[in-house]
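Notes from hallway chat w/ T.B., transcribed later so I don't forget. T.B. wanted the structure written out for a chain they're using in a teaching module, and asked if we could keep both sequence and structure tokens in one place. Agreed to drop them here.
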Amino acid sequence: MKQNSWEGKKVLVTGGAGFIGSHLTEKLVNLGADVSVLVKSDIMGGQPNLSNLQNVKDKIEAIPCNISENDVITTIIKNKPDVIFHLAAIAFVDYSFDHPFEVIRANYIGTLNILQAAMSINIERVVVTSSSEAYGTAQYIPIDEKHPLNPTSPYAASKVAADRTAFSFWQTYSLPIAIIRPFNTYGPRHTYDVIPKFIKFALKGEPLTIYGNGEQRRDFIYIDDMVDAFLIMGSDRKAIGEVVNFGSGKDVSINELAGLIIKLSGSKSKIVHVEKRLAEVDRLICDYSKAKKLFGWEPKVGLEEGLKRNIEYSRKFG
């Protein structure tokens, strides 16, 4: 991808104030794009939280909006973006156990609203964010895009619904869709999920809590590599109509991860095991050969290097 290909491009990022979204927004601004971000409305009328966008908040348009409400369609049509990156979602697996309706409404109906709006614009691309959770536990490894979709949680089911609905809009209406299936992404400004939690507790010398026996395995990919993946999916014509996995191609057990974070942070934290979590996925490991074949993409930041960067960031900024 040419670095100047985003110069002057009008881009809308839903969930642009979130973890991946904020890093993507910063990169797009630095590449010369005209960026707007949809951020969740504050029902009390206050200002939306743009803390993740401190470096670029004066260079973007922040639009408070709830993607699960129909008025988001009008908002997007008025914005007239050339490219939409749709990342907005309720991304907490545990939260979906007790709030399935809310999660499915945000993640599925929200995506449907984005797609419906895009139908009324001369859009170049809609990048829809799926999830490796859509696959469930690996039936074979590594997991390629042909692996069956077996969601084990309401969150995962909502992402499958959004993923397949987006694909149907490509098949039915020729809407220029690109579906990205990220594996577990980590890095600075991530506040939920296992890596930021482990780093937080390790730096405090507090116990690292692991659900179950800790032998569940995950494929972790650093944020810089994932942002590059999003930019490719938003710019390369070969991405249109495709579903593409992006991950490191390596997996690690949660026990091994906890031990590595304790070692790299110089912590004296202990590891504590508690009852297994509901709907636990036993193993996720990415086959990114399609991304390599189509785009020449490969991850650049290994797990140990990525964790060192993440730990250093957390030491400075908490």
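Follow-up for T.B.: The chain has a mean pLDDT of 95. Might be a good example for the class.
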